[in-house]
Amino acid sequence: MVKRAVRLRLLDITTQVAAIEAAIAGLSLADFRSDWLRRSAVERGIEVISEASRHIDPALTVRHPEVPWRRVADIGNWLRHAYEQVDPALIWFIVIDEFPALKAAIADMLAATPED
């Protein structure tokens, strides 16, 4: 497997966050709960974010303690291995309440990471 640059991983996160936000735009939690396809797509996007976060240089993440980086990295494993326990309300909370800090941190990291 070819090693991807950190900047590409940051862009992966940015892309997934934007896609997830578009997927849930205008929905309520009840709507989200009842839409298996949309929930599955959002969960997959979070898995990608989780995996990409594992490849960000700790020198960048340490500058953003407001983001629970360990939990960001761990959620992918939880979605893959404890899928039967996934509560749509938790996924909703992550997107609504935790994405803003993640988005801001990633934007800052992108600004600090030179293009290759």
UniProtKB/TrEMBL annotation:
A Pfam entry, by short name: HepT-like
Q: Does the keyword Nuclease apply?
A: yes
For the keyword Transmembrane helix, the answer is no
Which GO cellular component terms, listed alphabetically, does the Swiss-Prot or TrEMBL entry include? toxin-antitoxin complex
The source's domain of life comes to Bacteria
Q: A Gene Ontology molecular-function term?
A: nucleotide binding
Keywords of the record, alphabetical order, are:
Hydrolase, Nuclease, Nucleotide-binding, Phosphoprotein, Toxin-antitoxin system
Identification of the protein by name: DUF86 domain-containing protein
